[in-house]
TrEMBL record:
<comment type="pathway">
    <text>Glycolipid biosynthesis; glycosylphosphatidylinositol-anchor biosynthesis.</text>
</comment>
<keyword id="KW-0812">Transmembrane</keyword>
<keyword id="KW-1133">Transmembrane helix</keyword>
<feature type="transmembrane region" description="Helical">
    <location>
        <begin position="317"/>
        <end position="340"/>
    </location>
</feature>
<feature type="transmembrane region" description="Helical">
    <location>
        <begin position="225"/>
        <end position="244"/>
    </location>
</feature>
<dbReference type="GO" id="GO:0000009">
    <property type="term" value="F:alpha-1,6-mannosyltransferase activity"/>
</dbReference>
<keyword id="KW-0472">Membrane</keyword>
<keyword id="KW-0328">Glycosyltransferase</keyword>
<feature type="transmembrane region" description="Helical">
    <location>
        <begin position="65"/>
        <end position="85"/>
    </location>
</feature>
<keyword id="KW-0337">GPI-anchor biosynthesis</keyword>
<dbReference type="Pfam" id="PF04188">
    <property type="entry name" value="Mannosyl_trans2"/>
</dbReference>
<dbReference type="InterPro" id="IPR007315">
    <property type="entry name" value="PIG-V/Gpi18"/>
</dbReference>
<dbReference type="GO" id="GO:0005789">
    <property type="term" value="C:endoplasmic reticulum membrane"/>
</dbReference>
<feature type="transmembrane region" description="Helical">
    <location>
        <begin position="151"/>
        <end position="179"/>
    </location>
</feature>
<feature type="transmembrane region" description="Helical">
    <location>
        <begin position="371"/>
        <end position="395"/>
    </location>
</feature>
<dbReference type="GO" id="GO:0031501">
    <property type="term" value="C:mannosyltransferase complex"/>
</dbReference>
<protein>
    <recommendedName>
        <fullName>GPI mannosyltransferase 2</fullName>
        <ecNumber>2.4.1.-</ecNumber>
    </recommendedName>
</protein>
């Protein structure tokens, strides 16, 4: 039997339903949309924090530091975007969850999650860099350690296919835009981007309507926005600089000169952890795994000895396994500072794990740990308050 709730917001053409006025179903429809978006964002925020905790355990090998990093993420300066109907929470879940699975030894599922993250935000395609880093190191391992050059092609091909998978949503959306706006149109009516050799609607909108481009934002009137972004950019720069100072040679040589002992776990990212690189002789593979575990055990027993000034550690923020994350953060930081609207950096960099690992490291550093802890929490609290006031009133917070 028809009722007032069965009348859709588009004013159904069924005559029998014309006796029901449309306000209640319209309100219900809007409320469901808003509530569902709010629930999805906040649930994704919670699971993103859990994923960061698990990832931190794998990378840092320190439960306390992992917990601190996760708590910092829960109260990050861009929290207002994670608690509202915005793309940050879902992107963080897919991106961090994908890296957690990748660092745990899973091969294909992370590529799917990274591809989905590219469907949420365009910078999701940068996650392909993790597979690129992995493929390069496994190729090096196959060539110079395993002495099996024929395996290099298999490793590179597997990495390339997964990277292509990650790029598919971005490219498909650009093709969809071209088909709807440019396809079948008179050449005289086409916008300039339609006639480009590589017609990218995303880049055209960013540059033409929003003024995004290299050094385009370096104007005197944008100084307040640079000041607004300065805390997160400073934190990112210090985290990159701190990692670089730990071992400059390892940083600039992409980790190829780092020994397997220093790479610690998960060593599969650097060595033969993927199927194409594994030896066909399973007993040999098992023996090698046992040897790696023995080396790791000896490393953990000697960990009380303090490392030299320019020697990368085997665990914690300065471990070799953090290197691809630091490269990822470096590229995003440079993009935010030189290319984007710089105030967006606060939320643009917020899903990056090294920020929270480095902040957690500062809180326990010798000498000024209490001061750093107060500064980090003061920064987070002030931006949460500022963001809540500005964003909810439609001011350009980020």
């Amino acid at each position: 039997m028809p009722s007032s709730l069965s009348c859709p917001s588009s004013f159904s053409s069924f005559r029998i339903q014309k006796v029901f006025w449309p306000l209640i179903p319209v309100i219900g429809y809007r409320a469901v949309l808003g509530l569902s978006g709010y629930v999805i964002s906040n649930v994704a925020f919670v699971f993103a924090a859990l994923s960061l905790y698990r990832l931190s355990l794998v990378i840092l090998k320190d439960p306390n530091a992992s917990l601190r990093a996760s708590v910092l993420f829960c109260f990050n300066p861009a929290s207002i975007f994670y608690s509202s109907i915005y793309s940050e929470s879902l992107y963080a879940l897919l991106s961090i969850g994908g890296t957690y699975l990748l660092m745990s030894g899973v091969n294909n599922v992370p590529a799917l999650l990274f591809a989905l993250s590219g469907s949420v935000r365009s910078n999701g395609v940068l996650n392909a860099g993790y597979y690129g880093f992995k493929a390069l190191h496994q190729s090096y391992y196959a060539m110079y350690v395993k002495k099996r050059p024929h395996l290099v092609l298999k490793v590179l091909l597997a990495g390339a296919l997964r990277c292509i998978c990650i790029f598919i949503p971005f490219l498909a959306f650009q093709a969809y835009g071209y088909y709807n706006i440019c396809h079948g149109r008179n050449p005289e009516e086409m916008r300039p981007w339609c006639k480009a050799k590589i017609p990218l609607l995303y880049g055209f909108i960013q540059s033409h309507y929003w003024g995004v481009g290299f050094l385009q934002y370096f104007q005197l009137k944008q100084i307040p926005n640079f000041l607004l972004a300065s805390p997160v950019l400073s934190l990112a720069f210090c985290s990159i600089l701190s990692y670089w100072k730990a071992d400059p040679e390892n940083f600039f040589l992409l980790g190829f000169r780092t020994t397997l002992k220093k790479k610690y776990t998960p060593a599969f990212l650097f060595s033969g952890g993927e199927e194409p690189v594994r030896d066909d002789n399973h007993s040999a593979a098992k023996k090698e795994a046992i040897n790696v575990r023995r080396r790791q055990k000896s490393i953990s027993q000697d960990r009380s000895a303090s490392p030299s000034k320019n020697q990368i550690s085997v665990s914690g923020y300065h471990s070799a396994i953090v290197l691809p994350f630091v490269f990822h953060l470096s590229f995003m930081t440079a993009t935010a500072f030189f290319v984007m609207h710089v105030q967006v950096a606060t939320r643009f960099l917020s899903p990056s794990p090294p920020l929270y690992w480095f902040a957690s490291y500062l809180m326990t550093s010798a000498g000024k740990s209490r001061l750093w802890a107060h500064l980090v929490w003061a920064y987070a609290a002030s931006y949460i308050l500022l963001g809540s006031l500005l964003f909810s009133n439609f001011y350009p917070f980020t």
